[in-house]
Hints:
The structure is a homodimer of 159-residue chains.
Chain A: H1 2-13, H2 21-32, E1 38-39, H3 40-50, H4 56-68, E2 72-76, E3 82-86, E4 96-100, E5 106-109, H5 115-125, E6 128-139
Parallel strand pairs in A: 4-6
Antiparallel strand pairs in A: 1-3, 2-3, 4-5
Helix pairs in contact in A: 1-2, 2-3, 3-4
The complex binds zinc ion (4 copies).
The site of one zinc ion has 5 residues of chain B, from loops.
Chain A binds a DNA duplex (30 and 30 nucleotides) through α4.
Amino acid sequence: MEERVKQIKQQLSAHNYKLTPQREATVRVLLENEEDHLSAEDVYLLVKEKAPEIGLATVYRTLELLSDLTIIHKLNFGDGVTRYEFRAEGAEHHHHHLICLNCGAVDEIIDDWLGPIEKRVEKEFDFQIIDHRLTFHGICHRCKDQVKDPGKLVGSKVT
Amino acid sequence: MEERVKQIKQQLSAHNYKLTPQREATVRVLLENEEDHLSAEDVYLLVKEKAPEIGLATVYRTLELLSDLTIIHKLNFGDGVTRYEFRAEGAEHHHHHLICLNCGAVDEIIDDWLGPIEKRVEKEFDFQIIDHRLTFHGICHRCKDQVKDPGKLVGSKVT
DNA sequence: TTATCATATGAGATTTGATATCAATTGAAT
DNA sequence: ATTCAATTGATATCAAATCTCATATGATAA
Ligand SMILES: [Zn+2]
Ligand SMILES: [Zn+2]
Ligand SMILES: [Zn+2]
Ligand SMILES: [Zn+2]
């Protein structure tokens, strides 16, 4: 933890940014909830618990800054709010997500399974891939028993 | 064209909805721009050209309705606006998109290349897939010559 | 035709996520 | 201590989307 805060501090100063108390509080919240996919509002509420004087705008600015430096990653699951998570260190691409349409849980596929498909895209479409996004929407293993008609769940969801 | 309007009219009445003039105008705009990925605002402006009296709320309501009936598909490319496109007839899953980070063009991979990966997801994660979203972000073949440092393009983009 | 009634519509208000503005504060470097 | 740019917090603003509600429409029955 202290380790990673220090590392982030270095990444910031390498770009002439300081790790202010507000930024540090925000970073710590992100680290403490690394397994989740928090929205800006989520982060704001959690940061306020330890640093009540912080403003919402500062949280947004900090998230944007960490995003610019590719320390964290902005995600959009189509539910109207941007979410944030740490980038796996050294990971070139983003991992994949499994979103349950019944309970909303977000599980992850850490490995990158798209290698062969990316090769094909670059070749057949002459398209130079920088990043990708792969999300599966469906019923998670925890919900599979209580959902009878999955077809009803798709409807007007944004994908 | 008339063919497809009639077909949609039937799909609507099968669910006790009428193809009102406003809905028909909206459907025709979607059909006439099938190759694009229009936002609600785009649709609104185009519909207004032929039916100036239409209200924005009606366009939103119509798009939502067509979405509910899975006649069209709601898309989210992370740029803050929801986009709409016709669902390929009979297509269970949605096709894939190539989004150019330089010019914003959206190209399509019509075939579904995810079959093997989906099998793996269902097996390894016990996750029942209903739909998926696969988007590649990068440099399209039209832009590849004018972009020198693609790394700079990723930054804080939402994915 | 006229009355009835559920459905659909348009204008505008409201909500919500996110960004911009700007005066005040901080803090590093003289 | 002085300076000066970076940062912050409160608030205004913006845009997308939804909600409200009075009115309009259109099918049906008398
Ligand atoms: Zn679930
Ligand atoms: Zn994730
Ligand atoms: Zn391009
Ligand atoms: Zn498409």
